Amino acid sequence: MKFWQRAFFSILVLFIFCFYMSIFLVSNFSYRTSLNSERERSFGEAYFIAASLKKEISEMMESGVDISSRDYYVFNTYVNYYKNRDIYLALWENDEYLVGNVPWSLLGKYDANSETQASTVIEYDDIKYLIVVSVFQCNSDEFTLVYAHDLQSFASEHTSLSRFLMLSGVVITIILASGLYVLLRRLSKPIENLDKATGYISGGDYSMRVPAQGKDELTALARHFNSMADEIETKIHELQTTAGQKQRFIDNLAHELRTPLTTIRGYAEYLKNANINEDDRIASIDHIVSEAVRIEEMTNKLLDLALLRNNALDTVDIYPPELFSAVSDKMRQKLVEKEIRLETGCELNGINGDRILLESLLCNLLDNAIKASNIGASIKMSGYMEDERCIIEIQDFGKGMTEEHIVKLTEPFYRVDKSRSRSEGGAGLGLALCEEIAELHNAKLVFSSELENGTTVKITFTTP
Amino acid sequence: MAHILVVEDDKSINELIVRNLKLVGHSYIQAFDGAEAVSIASENEIDLILLDVMLPGMDGFEVFQKIPPTPVIFITAKDGLEHRLNGLSLGADDYIIKPFEMLELLARIEVVLRRTQKNNTVFSLDNAVIDLTSRTAIVGGKEIDLSPREFELLEVLITNRNIALSRDKLLELAWGYDYTGETRTVDTHIQKLRSKLGWENRIKTLYKLGYRLEV
User: Fold this and answer.
1) Rounded to a whole number, what is the largest CA-CA distance in chain A?
2) H/E stretch holding B5
3) Is B84 in the same domain as B101?
4) Which fold has domain A313-461?
5) Do B47 and B94 sit in the same domain of this protein?
6) Å from B166 to nearest chain A CA?
7) Are residues B82 and B162 both part of a single domain?
8) What confidence tens digit (pLDDT) does each residue in A282-310 have?
9) Between chains, do B100 and A284 touch, taking CB under 8 Å as contact?
10) Residue from the list A258, A291, A417 with its beta carbon closest to the beta carbon of B99
11) A273 at B interface, C-beta within 8 A
12) ipTM, two decimals
């Protein structure tokens, strides 16, 4: 059974029990109190009748009227008068029944006792009667007056009240049940949502979220659930990205090793088996040597990458213009070869970092810029402050690249253009190294590029 | 023999392939990217194209669709199944996966050339004329008798001429992979071929290497 159903039935049963219990108690109490007041009233009336009878009887006695002939008349006026109000009367004189309209069988049931005034409720013929007995003295005679009040209308009043209460109870129960249903469904909706979302997430759909509007605990739970799902989603995504990068790294490494090895093996077999002259032999050996050098360079760079990740920095204060001139000295040969003009400008006063690594970082970036540039183009290398941060920027006006390349740019072995980089001797590891060096210096590498318009690399040092 | 276009962006490998083609007597043209390959293939009479799949700019499949119908063997570094299927469904004659052995490439070239009838199957050296299609050998105007196995071996030697073949390799190529005979069998068959064809100085015994038919 669901939570809301359980709550619904429990509350409903509890409510019905309490409600009808109170209806019962209330009607019972009101019955008693109204019966009591009825009794009081009857006492009063009986006393009044008895007193007036006593007065009239004593007056008659004094005037010497024969009681047996006139008394009836007097008494009968009482009887007739009260009969309309469902009250029956009977009169005795010294144990002798004189007159009255109280049904005999009722009188037979009533065992008159010795008390002067007493009341009791007697049921006869399914009708309840309230009976009051009054005894009074007139001269030496003792008169007994029996007053019987028919409680029929009183009882029916009570019954209709009870019925009304019951009926309104049913109506209220129905209203309560439907209200409770709507309310509980609304209250349990967030739980259902959470349940559904948990199902989706455990099933692998990490993008599932629950609506979280409001201020109660369930909304807070939903919000926390959502942030948990966010966290899981990002973590999973990161894991997938890392796994993808690793897979690409391995694939690329295998490919990068396989290509030169294919060549080396091919030439070795050629040398071994073919009937060739000295020139061919030397050319083949040259190929083998250059491929071996390629592998060596690649392993060195891979080693550098691994070492960089594990080593601490040897940081000193560097005067950036010096760094710039050192870098342009190192790259002079390549710049001259492609007739490229390098424009440098530096407004920075000092950078804290590892001189050798920063040099290598700039050399690598500059090398890439040169490779991307056309013959006779220019490259800008500048240092400046922006938002109180040191920035070094290298801008070329060469081939440029698309957005999809930029994302994977710093992955090991990634090449924007396979053949270009190969033919110019790159292993595809330069930018991976750059990224690593930048990270060690708490710096960020940001590439922006436009096809055929060139590329800009921005190194932002987050710590001065 | 055949005129072959080699399309491969890695210069060393391209060079290696054409050197081997030259050894066995084919002529060749080199191309280092897709656009170059397309223009060469449209302007020249080419018997076969060796086409690398991973080319800068335009990939091998694209090149294949742009050239006039020519027998093609794809060279692919990726051994992913989809690449092979892609290559073959395009109508390539064969494919070979990098890294490959030169002898294997030569064998496949031979098969494709023979199937497409572009190869000159008559080979003559000194006094001997061998027709690989009709499987006949004529020495000094007279047809000589060669056992099927001898002819098989002769064919392997001719296809891979100027390349040294070890006894094991010869067994594998002429007798088949599952042949478990001794390498001495090769020696006796070589002796018979030498005397029957008069190629005592043509089929060289190479120390530690095997045999080579030198042309």
Assistant:
1) 180
2) strand B3-7
3) yes
4) Heat Shock Protein 90 (3.30.565)
5) yes
6) 9
7) no
8) 999 999 998 898 888 888 878 887 887 77
9) no
10) A258
11) yes
12) 0.82
Coil, helix or strand at residue A452 = coil
Q: How far is A220 from chain B (nearest CA, A)?
A: 50
pLDDT tens column, B25-81: 889 999 988 888 999 988 888 889 998 887 877 878 888 888 888 889 988 776 555
Sign of CA dihedral A152, A153, A156, A161: negative
Q: Which residue has the tokens 């006949």?
A: B136
Which of B6, B7, B9, B16 best tests the A interface by mutation, with the highest count of A CBs <10 A? B16
Q: Does B6 touch chain A (CB under 8 A)?
A: no
Judged against a pLDDT cut of 80, whether residue B190 lies above it is answered with yes
For A150-175, the pLDDT digits (tens) are 888 888 888 888 899 889 989 999 99
B132 shares a domain with B103: no
Is it true that domain A211-311 has CATH number 1.10.287.130?
A: yes
Domain boundaries, chain A: 3-161, 211-311, 313-461
Contacts of B58 in chain A (CB under 8 A): none
Task: Report the DSSP beta bridge partners of residue A142.
Answer: A137
CATH number of the domain residue B67 falls in: 3.40.50.2300
- CA distance linking residue A396 with residue A343, whole number of Å: 10
A236/A259 Cα distance (integer angstroms): 34
CB-nearest partner of A255 from B20, B77, B162: B77
Residue that is last in its domain, among B99, B115, B131: B115
Q: How many CB pairs under 8 A join A and B?
A: 72
Instruction: Say yes or no: B139 and B199 in one domain.
Output: yes
* CB-CB neighbors (< 8 A) of B100 in chain A: 262
Mutate to test the interface with B, among A253, A273, A401, A424 (most CBs of B within 10 A): A273
CATH code linked to domain A3-161:
3.30.450.20
Which of B16, B33, B77 faces A419 most closely, judged by CB atoms?
Answer: B33
CB-CB under 8 Å, A266 with B16: yes
pLDDT digits (tens, 9 = 90+) for A115-132: 445 667 776 667 778 888
Rounded-to-5 percentages of helix, strand, coil across chain B: 40, 20, 35
Q: Determine, for residues B19 and A423 on separate chains, whether the beta-carbon distance falls below 8 Å.
A: no
User: Residue A263 and residue B16: Cβ atoms within 8 Å?
Assistant: yes
Domain count, chain B: 2
Task: Name the residue with tokens 């000194």.
Answer: B126
pLDDT, position B1:
72
Task: Write the residue in B9, B12, B102 that is nearest to A419 by C-beta.
Answer: B9
Q: Which domain holds residue B193?
A: 122-213
Residues of chain A contacting residue B201, judged by C-beta atoms under 8 Å apart = none
Q: Is the pLDDT of residue A417 over 80?
A: no
Closest CA to A118 of A166, A186, A47: A47
Which chain A residues are within 8 Å of B98, Cβ to Cβ? 258-259, 262
Q: Rounded distance, CA B3 to CA A87, Å?
A: 140
Q: How does DSSP classify residue A312?
A: P
Q: Which residues contact A92 (CB under 8 A, 6 or more apart)?
A: A98, A143, A144, A145, A146
Residues B111 and B180 both lie in one domain: no
> Rounded CA gap, A348 and A112, in Å?
126
| Whether B214 contacts chain A with CB within 8 A | yes
